[in-house]
Amino acid sequence: MTESITKTNLLGLSPAKLEAFFAELGEKRFRATQVLKWIHQLGAESFDEMTNISKALREKLNAVAEIRPPEVVSQDISKDGTRKWVIRVEGGSCVETVLIPEGTRRTLCISSQVGCSLNCSFCSTGKQGFNRNLTAAEVIGQVYIAIKSFGPMDPNGERQVTNVVLMGMGEPLMNFDNVVDSTQLMMDDNAYGLSKRRVTLSTAGVVPAIDRLREISDVSLAISLHAPNNELRDVLVPINRRYPIDQLIDACNRYLEGLSDKRVITIEYTMMAGVNDQPHQARELVKVLRRLPCKLNLIPFNPFPNSGYERPSDAAIQAFKQIMVTSNIITTVRRTRGDEIDAACGQLVGQVQDRTRRSQKIIPVVQEEPGLSTDRRA
Ligand code: SAH
C-alpha cells in the first residue's frame, strides 16, 4: 500500500517531465522517448512489457514508478455510436468522458476537474459543485482509456481518436498545469501525435490564464461566450464579472497573434429559449464577433432536471443562425449526440463529492405526481 503512494505515475508526465524523471534516475534521455511510445502508442500497462529496455532498468522502474490509469466504472454505447465512460478518480468521485463519431472524425470530449468552480447558471456540472482538479494522469488517462477500449493500441493502424476537446466537466484553465501537460502529450509525436488543430481547449474565459497559455502552448482555443453583452453574460457565466467581454476578446486576439499558423477561435454559444436566442441578440453578437477572427458554434441547450432553462425551437435557432450567416460569420449548429445515454453537452454530471456545498443549495422543482417524493438531492 505505502509503496504505491510514493511511486511516480508515469502516465501523466509530459514529455519534458518524463525526460527529467529519467535524468534523475541517471538514465539517458532516449529512455523517455521509448517509454512515451510504450505507454501512449502501444498502451503498455507494465514495465515488463517494454522489451527494448534492459531488465535492470525495468526492475528499477518497477521499484519507483507505475503506469496507473483511472478506473473505468462503466462504458455505454449509444445507438448513434457515441460512447460514454464513467471514470472513478482517486478519492472516489467520478467524471465522464464521451467519444463522438462523425464521419471519419472521432472526437473525444474529456473532463478536467471533478465538478467545476465557475457556477455557470445553465451548466449541470456547475450545479454539482466543485471537488478538485484532475491530475495529469487522470486527464490524459481518459484518452488512453478511450483508445484502449477499441482493442490493443496500434500506432500504425487507424486512429481511434482523431480529435480531443476539453469540453467535459470542469474549467480547464483553472487546472492549468495538469491540462497543459496533458495537451502536450496529446500533441507529441512520440505520444498521441494529434495536430494542434485537433486539440481544443474550451474555456469560460479565464483571461490571465489565456495569456499564460499563449506563452507555452499552441493548442486550439474555444470560448464559451453565450451572451452578446456583459449584462446577460454576468448572469450566465459569472466569471464575466471579473473578466468582461472586451477583455476576453482582447486576450483571444493576443492568443491568435502568438500562433505561428493562421487559426480562428471557436465561439460556443449555448442557446436558451427567451434568454439569448432573440434576433436583436444575434445582431448584437455580430458586432462583438467582428472584432475577432472566429467561427461560431451554436449549441441548443440540453435540458437537465431543475435547470430552469429550455431549448429554443428549431425555427428560432435557424433564424439566429441566418442573421450570423448573412453577416459573414461562419456558423454551425451543434447536433445533439448521445442524449439517450446522457452524454450530450452539459449532461455530464459524474459523481462529485461537493466541497463547496453548492449542490445542497439547489432547491428541487416539484415535478412529480402528488404523493411521490420530490427531493432529488439525496
Ligand atoms: N468550462 C469549459 C468547458 C466545459 S463546458 C467552458 O466553459 O468552456 C463545454 C461547453 O458545453 C461549454 O460551451 C458549455 O457552455 C456547454 N454547455 C454546458 N451546459 C450545457 C447545456 N446544458 N446544454 C448545452 N451546452 C452546455
What is the topological layout?
Layout: H1 2-6, E1 8-9, H2 15-24, H3 30-41, H4 55-64, E2 65-66, E3 71-77, E4 83-88, E5 94-102, E6 105-109, E7 113-115, H5 124-127, E8 130-133, H6 136-148, E9 163-166, H7 176-187, E10 199-203, H8 207-216, E11 220-224, H9 230-236, H10 245-257, E12 265-271, H11 279-289, E13 294-300, H12 314-326, E14 331-333
Parallel strand pairs: 1-2, 6-9, 9-10, 10-11, 11-12, 12-13, 13-14
Antiparallel strand pairs: 3-4, 4-5, 5-6, 7-8
Helix pairs in contact: 2-3, 6-7, 8-10, 11-12
Bound molecules: S-adenosyl-L-homocysteine.
How many β-strands, per DSSP? 14
Major sheet details:
10 strands, mixed
The helix tally amounts to 12
Low-confidence stretches: 362-378
| Secondary-structure element string | HEHHHEEEEEEHEHEHEHEHHEHEHE
Sum this structure up briefly.
The protein contains twelve helices and 14 strands. The protein is α/β, with parallel strands linked by helices and 378 residues long. It binds S-adenosyl-L-homocysteine.
Could you list some keywords that capture this structure?
18% strand, 378 residues, single chain, alpha/beta, 14 strands, ten-stranded mixed β-sheet, globular, binds S-adenosyl-L-homocysteine, disordered C terminus, 32% helix, two-stranded parallel ribbon
Task: Give structural notes.
- With 378 residues, the protein is α/β, with parallel strands linked by helices.
- It has helices at residues 2-6, 15-24, 30-41, 55-64, 124-127, 136-148, 176-187, 207-216, 230-236, 245-257, 279-289, 314-326, and strands at 8-9, 65-66, 71-77, 83-88, 94-102, 105-109, 113-115, 130-133, 163-166, 199-203, 220-224, 265-271, 294-300, 331-333.
- It contains twelve helices and 14 strands.
- A ten-stranded mixed beta sheet has the order 3-4-5-6-9-10-11-12-13-14, covered by helices on one side.
- Strand 10, helix 8 (207-216) and strand 11 form a beta-alpha-beta unit.
- Helix 2 (15-24) crosses helix 3, helix 6 runs parallel beside helix 7 (176-187) and helix 11 (279-289) runs parallel beside helix 12.
- The radius of gyration is 22 Å and the shape is globular.
- Mean pLDDT is 90; it is low at 362-378.
- The chain binds S-adenosyl-L-homocysteine.
- Residues 122-124, 167, 171, 202-204, 224, 268, 270, 299, 301-302, 345-346 line the site of S-adenosyl-L-homocysteine (SAH).
